[in-house]
Amino acid sequence: MSAGGSRGGFLLDRLVTATALLLGVTLISFTLTVHFGPDPTWEQLGRNPTPEQIEQVRQALGQDRGFLPRYADFLLRLARLDLGHALASGEPVVDLLARAIPVSLLLLAPGFLIGIVLALALAMVAAWRPRGFVDRLCTIVSATGMSLSLVIIVIALQAVFAVWLDWFPARGWRVHDLASYLRHVTVPSLGLIVAGLGYNLRFFRSVFRNVLHDPPVRTARAYGFGDGRIAIRYVLRAAAPPILTRILVAVPLIVISGSLIIEKHFGIPGIGMVTWNAMMSGDQPVMMAVVSLSSVLFVLALSVTDLLTGLLDPKVRGA
Amino acid sequence: MTAPVTLRRRLAGLDRLPVALMAVFLAAAAGVWCGLWGTDWSTISGTLREPPSPEHWLGTNRLGQDILERLLAGTATAFEVGLLVAVASVALGAALGGLAGFHAGRRIDTLLTWVIGTIDAIPFYLFVAAIAFAMRGWPGAMQLAMILSFWTLTARLVRTESMRLREREFIAAARASGSTNRRILLRHILPNLAPLLLVQASLAFVAAVKAEVVLSFLGIGLQDSISWGIMIAEASQEILAGHFTNFIAASLALFVLVLSINSLSDGLQERLDPRVRRTPTERLA
């Protein structure tokens, strides 16, 4: 804003915004999971502690300090990825996460990616011929998809494909080769595709509709370029910024709600399961790590996208 | 022209079917509030997992509780959660968004924009989980978490809109004729925002009802109560044994309610935004 369009000013501006957001999300994570979280003092004490014993343990743990020193300490530990040990298993939280995250990625990536590609393709056809067959179909699919919950979709798919038809395992994650991976990943992926299709179709279609009216696309059509060439070289390219931003914003919602719901329901040991267990048992170090790390990662991803679109498009930079 | 007239006119032509469906849901919820039905949702009868019968229209669950009673009581819960979250989050969003937009560029605006950005950067389900964690079993934790995270969308829109309105001639005219800030806000800015707030409230209502299902399924939703989410969570255990009534009843209720509100708010949005051309297919969306 004050930078007046200069590149250095723009970078500085975005850096300040990103730092402020990082401070914001860590402050909220700290307040909710550490400050208001269970006081670790009591776990170190025996029965009927004397006031002196309580004071001693509080001092040893640093609980007697004020809010700000404890927050600063929390930031330092977060930056060093010194996340402590899980209360339930005594295992370092970093190891726990390192084991669970790849499982969740394997579980969610296929459904998420196929869902987006499918939605892009369908939305393109729908936007190309408004009120055509595909467009009508997409309208019904998106109205239905938006009114269902991932919970309902997952339970229904499990009932149909794993119980009634008995084609896939109903629960668990016993993956050792490609075939067993495909058997376990199919039903969850179908769920993610169906759940994401509703909102994505609608959004992508309206973006494509707008872009199809843009002068470059109209010119390309007037030149008689082939449909495929126009769709990919012009429409998809012009529509890329809002679509990429949209996908990025959808990632935490889909990945986190998806991994929580799917992993809990199918009993899959990914990050959602780890989070759910921590939530249920009050495992403070794990909660703190999951909440603060995912918020920090999201802020970083948003800032990088913002920076890239800004550097590529001078109009955004000036704004 | 004053706002209530335009708003009423905008509401007049809405599609009949979703309005009728909403009326059915509201009647079901109102009956529960008046104590006409849905009060026996926790009563345990002798027969477990009974198929539909004249006594239990939708049958009973694994504890022998009447599924129709639970469905009706759940409808009331959906409206309680949805209305509370919709009204509170839109009111908070309108107040803070209006404050930021009215003082655009000043320190209070920077502060509020930062707060909005921060809340939006925390993944919703983790935010709810963290609040439930911090509150440890306080029954309002879920609703509070929803309000605290849903208001930001309204605030962003209201901020932009009030920045735009601030520059318009009729505000300048009102100011020139000696209106106070308060009068300008209440008589000129708020009526212009009313349709937008109504759409936001309907979106927040849907989001709250849907989030309740997910959160109750995960076990961090409502406690000691009955809701569609609790019914679905219950059903997820029964479905492997081939009992579908509980699941189908709650899912269908959620689906029809959300579909109706979505189509109403779409109709409303089309009327608000002349750029959205009204085509027969788009009305379904």
Automatic annotation (TrEMBL), chain A:
InterPro entries referenced in this protein's UniProt entry, alphabetically: BPD_transp_1_N, MetI-like, MetI-like_sf
Which keywords does this Swiss-Prot/TrEMBL entry list?
A: Cell membrane, Membrane, Transmembrane, Transmembrane helix, Transport
Location in the cell = Cell membrane
* CC annotations in GO: plasma membrane
Q: How does it sit in the membrane?
A: Multi-pass membrane protein
Pfam families per the UniProt record, alphabetical: BPD_transp_1, BPD_transp_1_N
Transmembrane portions of the chain: 12-36, 105-128, 140-165, 185-204, 243-262, 286-308
Domain named ABC transmembrane type-1 is located at 101-309
In which domain of life is the source organism classified? Bacteria
Q: Which SUPFAM superfamilies match?
A: MetI-like
**From its record, what is one biological process in GO terms?**
transmembrane transport
Q: Which family does it belong to?
A: Belongs to the binding-protein-dependent transport system permease family. OppBC subfamily.
Q: What is this protein called?
A: ABC transporter permease
From TrEMBL, chain B:
Tell me the first and last residues of the signal peptide. Answer: none
Instruction: Extract one GO cellular component term from the record.
Output: plasma membrane
Query: What are the entry keywords?
Result: Cell membrane, Membrane, Transmembrane, Transmembrane helix, Transport
> According to its record, how does it sit in the membrane?
Multi-pass membrane protein
Which CDD domains has this protein been placed in?
TM_PBP2
Which SUPFAM superfamilies does the record match to this protein? MetI-like
A Pfam family in this protein?
Answer: BPD_transp_1
Q: Could you list the residue ranges that cross the membrane? A: 17-38, 81-104, 111-134, 140-158, 189-208, 244-264
GO biological process terms on file: transmembrane transport
Domain (ABC transmembrane type-1) ranges: 79-265
Q: Which PROSITE patterns match?
A: ABC_TM1 (PS50928)
Q: Give the location in the cell.
A: Cell membrane
The record's similarity note reads: Belongs to the binding-protein-dependent transport system permease family.
Q: Which PANTHER family match?
A: ABC TRANSPORTER, OLIGOPEPTIDE TRANSPORT SYSTEM PERMEASE PROTEIN APPC
This protein is called what?
Answer: ABC transporter permease
The source organism is: Wenzhouxiangella sediminis
